[in-house]
Fold this sequence. Notes:
The complex is a heterodimer.
Chain A: H1 2-20, H2 26-33, H3 42-61, H4 73-89, H5 93-98, H6 105-127
Chain B: H1 6-27, H2 33-41, H3 50-70, H4 81-97, H5 102-111, H6 115-138
Amino acid sequence: MKLVFAALLSGTVFGAGLAVAEMTNPAKVLGFLDLAGSWDPSLAFVMGTALAASAVAYRLHRSPAPAAGSIDSRLIGGACLFGMGWGIAGFCPGPAVASLVTGSADVALFVGAMLGGMGLFHLVEKTAPRKVAQHAA
Amino acid sequence: MTEFTPVASMLGGLLIGLAAALLLLVNGRVAGVSGILGQALWPSAGEERGWRTAFVLGLPLGASIVAYLNGPLIVEIETRPTMLIVAGLLVGFGTRLGNGCTSGHGVCGMSRGAARSIAATSTFMAVAVVTVFLVRHVFGGMA
């Protein structure tokens, strides 16, 4: 129960952070990714402070060294597909789910398609299972 | 077009980092939204749904608290519905195949210096920048 509550609190603080930083607005994210437009560096500041706070936690946690998984074609291929989708819509998973509170039909459409993509991946994995070490990330 | 908001960005980033720290220190888990969401809906053998569902529900809850205190969230979407669907499929499939997104690889993985996360984050950032350039400046308004 403690773990469920901590996870709810973590998700809530995470969602609040996304909203405070306006990362829930895809126009803001695309403004960062559009180097050739009127560039908005905000996202770099969000990631910078998030990284710093998280890095302190990893020091405190003395977590085991990152799994020495290889940088394989699944990792890079997945990152390429994700980067394309992120660049088209300006939504990555966290902000998209958090933005559902606006009741926007466009957000719901994106999240529905995203869940479809995740479900499709699950189907493919089930049909063609591969022995791949799952790294928590 | 959006304005550069350094103070709100740093405050928001700090909250995101604290959320990741909380999940790590209490639950011993990585705050990667795509993995948590995917495993909440389609859990691998031996993985729990409970804490994952709670985390995912927290995201809109936290956003709604900010909206309540600070005024409605602004969501500006110019992407056409068909392209939103294409983008959603790519984000959903890609983040599960590559085992992480902006939070799992970009914040958590990079903050502990994981080589895989640094490689993944560099890749999706670069691909997203190229995609935005193509969509906005080459095939003007394609999306």
